[in-house]
Amino acid sequence: MLYPIILKLESRPCLVVGGGKVAERKVNSLVDAGAKVAVISPMITENIQKWVDQGTVRYQGRGYQEGDAAGYFLVVAATDLQEVNDLVTRDCNQRNILINTVDNPEGSNFYVPATIRRGDLQIAISTGGASPAVARRIRQSLEVQFGEEYGEFLTLMARLREQVLREVPCPVRRKAIFDSLADADLLELIKCGEEKRLKERVAQCLSSSLD
C-alpha cells in the first residue's frame, strides 16, 4: 500500500539526469519546489538552457558517470537510455538516495505525482507508477474543476485566520468564526468577482460569530 508523503525540497540539492522534454518537466517541478537543481546531460532543451542562463539550474554538459549522484538528496533519472537510467538507479540505491526512474516504477523508490497548484492548495494525483498518462488526464480534469479562484480564496482564509487568532482569545468563538467563514460561499463570490459582497459577507461572519 502506498501512502502520500510530502517532502520539503526547499534548498535541497536535487539532480536530474537527462535533458529532454521529460527531464524539463521534472526540473520545472523541482525548481517550483525551491530545490537547488542540477542537470547532467549531453544536450538540454531550450527551457532548461534558459534556467541555466538565469542561474536557476546548474548544468554539466556530459553523460552521467558512476558516483555523480553522491551528495544529492534526490535524483531523477530521465534519459531515453535504459543503461544510463539503470546506472543512476544502482548508484542511488547503493548510497540510499531517493531515486525516481522515469517510466520504470520498479527502479524507483518514490513516485512523482501529477500536481495541481492553486496558491496554497496542492492536489496530487498518483497511479503508483502504473500509468503516468492516466494521472495526467485526471490532473487536466481537476484543473478545470479547481480554478485559480482557489488560490485567492486560501490567501483570504489564511489572512482571516491570522486576524481571528490575534484578536479573538476565546477558542469557542474562534471555531464559530472559522465555521461561519467556511460556510459563507466566499469562494463563489471570489469566482464571480463580487468584491463588495465578499467584504460584506466576511464582515457579517466576523460580527455574527462574536455576538
Describe the structure.
This protein has 211 residues and is α/β, with parallel strands linked by helices. Helices cover 46% and strands 15% of the residues. It has eight helices and seven strands. The strands form two sheets. A five-stranded parallel beta sheet has the order 3-2-1-4-5, sandwiched between helices. Strands 6-7 form a two-stranded antiparallel sheet. Helix 5 packs antiparallel against helix 6. The longest helix has 19 residues.
Please give the structural blueprint.
Layout: E1 13-17, H1 21-32, E2 36-40, H2 46-53, E3 57-60, E4 74-77, H3 82-94, E5 98-101, E6 114-118, E7 121-125, H4 132-145, H5 149-167, H6 171-182, H7 186-191, H8 195-208
Parallel strand pairs: 1-2, 1-4, 2-3, 4-5
Antiparallel strand pairs: 6-7
Helix pairs in contact: 5-6
Q: What is the CATH top level name of the largest domain? A: Alpha Beta
SSE run: EHEHEEHEEEHHHHH
Specify the biggest β-sheet. 5 strands, parallel
Strand content: 15-25%
Helix content: 40-55%
End-to-end separation in angstroms reads 48 Å
Integer-rounded radius of gyration: 22 Å
For the biggest β-sheet, the strand order reads 3-2-1-4-5
Tell me the domain tally. Answer: 3
Q: Architecture of the largest domain in CATH?
A: 3-Layer(aba) Sandwich
CATH superfamily of the largest domain: NAD(P)-binding Rossmann-like Domain
Mass-distribution shape: elongated
Contiguous runs where pLDDT drops below 50 for at least 5 residues: none
Overall mean confidence score, pLDDT: 89
Q: Provide the structure class.
A: alpha/beta
Helix count from the secondary structure assignment: 8
Q: What's the count of strands?
A: 7
| The CATH topology of the largest domain | Rossmann fold
